[in-house]
Design goal:
InterPro entries: EmrB-like (IPR004638), MFS (IPR011701), MFS_dom (IPR020846), MFS_trans_sf (IPR036259). The protein is mainly α. The chain is 76% helix and 0% strand. Helix 1 runs antiparallel to helix 8 and helix 11 packs antiparallel against helix 19. It is globular, with a radius of gyration of 22 Å.
């Protein structure tokens, strides 16, 4: 049993940081009321955490190879805990958003080292088990966030979704210090500061531009300036990576179709499976009037399905990455499509089957993504590979929320404008998208409130349907790309782990040297 304590310590930190990606979704209406937020504020509360996490993962994974994976993981836990405390006592939306950004920095230190830490502590069959458990933890955490958030918000207060991190963080720090061992690679590489900074700027400017696009319009000068700045930063990143001796992301790996397919799948999976849950939560609470717990419980089947699928994949596998990830993405596409049948009279039961199907897809695909990424690079770049796949996953979530937010609000506005009962469709769409459905209904003349209520339900359902259809299309496209690009076989050499503990898992993409 003692050999599994490192896995427990790693999974505890992973569970906390991933729960905090989605835990705020069911608390958003309460936050909006308490802090007086807009849709952009709500999106940033969710998005800034995922964005900070995604933007820093590449640099963290690479630098941790030299500075020590255990040290970076523990420091990340401490930062995460302190930022959670600030989030819990935030007096306004600005402080909350800033604290969420710092929380994401701590989470990057944790998440950017987890895969390499697993590689350090386990080998052969134990490594397969460890990755299966870690994959199940990923799937459960992402889907369980709304349930945990709902319980804490309804029976205590939305601030407790952050207070609860404090005792768990202390436990994780104590366990990590006691059971994890440390390995440092020789510090012979120059730190790729230009790559780290330019990637962070590119990701941040792009996400901010997408969020501003549906408030200031796509052609607004500031929006276009943000997109241009993001493109410039991306060019700087590509140049920096091509010229650096030891880049945070080895661009030559993208010459291999398998690596490109895995990274693209990671980007699209997280967007298609989880980004729309923010709007599902707003629909369940602000339109249907469910409490946070009831809203969270409607998403619980997704959590259970993800756990079961991930556990079965670990027990019955290993599966070829192309098969596991491709089928998982097809299930996510089918699940989103099954949910896209809402109308003004729909209830939470309408989306449950689709959420279960999506959960099965998440559980099937997530473990294989990580194993395949780690196996696709030389052993000494294990931290970089782990950081890369997790970066693309979280970046997909951050960009997904921003893109879906623009699509969602545009569709709401289109329906309101076509009906004519709401005098200012643009303002009404912003209010509905910000979780203020009842305020829109109450502001209408008494004799028209029933009609306006039906219109609000129709507009929200139509917008959510459109968002879900886009999510389904994204997942289906990613599945096709995986089937075309990713190799179908598994590597079964049974080689022992390398002395640094970084080697690839037994199964996944063939481990080849960089061309």
């Amino acid at each position: 049993m003692r050999k599994w304590w490192p896995l427990v310590a790693i999974c505890l930190g992973t569970f906390m940081l991933l729960v905090d990606v989605t835990i705020v979704t069911v608390a958003l209406p309460d936050m909006a009321t308490d802090l007086g937020t807009t849709l952009s504020d709500l999106e940033w509360v969710v998005d800034i955490y995922a964005l900070a996490l995604a933007a820093l993962l590449l640099g963290v994974g690479s630098s941790a190879d030299r500075t020590g994976r255990k040290a970076v993981y523990v420091v990340g836990l401490v930062i995460f805990a302190l930022a959670s405390l600030v989030c819990a006592v935030a007096p306004d939306a600005g402080v909350l958003i800033a604290a969420r950004a710092v929380q994401g920095i701590g989470a990057a230190g944790m998440f950017g080292t987890t895969i390499a830490l697993l590689g350090m502590h386990y080998e052969r069959k134990d490594r397969n088990i460890a990755f299966a458990v870690w994959g199940a933890t990923n799937a459960v955490a992402a889907a369980a966030g709304p349930v945990v958030g709902g319980v804490l918000t309804e029976y205590l207060d939305w601030r407790w979704i952050f207070f609860v991190n404090l005792p768990l963080s202390v436990l994780a720090v104590v366990m990590s210090v006691r059971v994890l061992h440390e390995v440092r690679l020789p510090a012979r590489e120059r730190v790729d500061w230009m790559g780290s900074v330019s990637f962070t700027v590119a990701a941040g400017a792009l996400t901010y531009g997408l969020i501003r696009a549906h408030t200031d319009r796509w052609t607004a000068p500031f929006t276009l300036a943000l997109f241009g700045f993001a493109a410039l930063a991306l060019i700087v990143f590509l140049v920096a990576e091509s010229r650096h001796d030891h880049p945070i992301l080895d661009l030559s790996l993208f010459r291999r179709a398998s690596f490109t397919g895995i990274m693209t799948a990671a980007l699209f999976l997280q967007a298609a499976a989880f980004a729309y849950l923010l709007f599902t939560s707003l629909w369940l609470q602000s339109v249907l009037g469910y409490g946070p717990v009831k809203a969270g419980l409607y998403i619980l089947p997704m959590c259970g399905a993800a756990f079961v699928a991930s556990a079965l994949a670990g027990r019955l596998g290993p599966w070829p990455p192309r098969l596991a990830v491709g089928i998982g993405l097809l299930l996510i596409a089918a699940g989103a499509a099954l949910q896209a049948v809402l109308d003004a009279d729909s209830t939470g039961n309408t989306v449950m089957v689709g959420l279960v199907v999506s959960g099965l897809g998440v559980g099937a695909a997530t473990p294989s993504l990580s194993e395949a990424a780690l196996a696709s690079v030389p052993a000494e770049r294990g931290g970089m590979a782990g950081g890369a796949v997790n970066t693309f996953r979280q970046l997909g979530f951050a960009l997904g929320i921003a893109v879906f937010g623009a699509i969602f609000q545009a569709r709401v506005e289109h329906v309101l404008r076509g009906d004519g009962r709401v005098p200012d469709p643009e303002q009404g769409a912003a209010a509905l998208s910000g979780g203020q459905a009842q305020a829109v209904i109450s502001s209408s003349p008494p004799g028209e409130r029933d009609a306006v209520g039906h219109l609000v339900r129709s507009a929200f359902a139509s917008a959510l349907n459109t968002t879900l259809v886009v999510a389904a299309a994204v997942a289906a496209f990613a599945a096709l790309l995986v089937f075309v690009t990713v190799r179908g076989g598994t590597r079964d050499t049974g080689a022992e782990a390398d002395p640094t503990g970084e080697g690839a898992p037994e199964h996944g993409l063939p481990a080849q040297a960089s061309p």
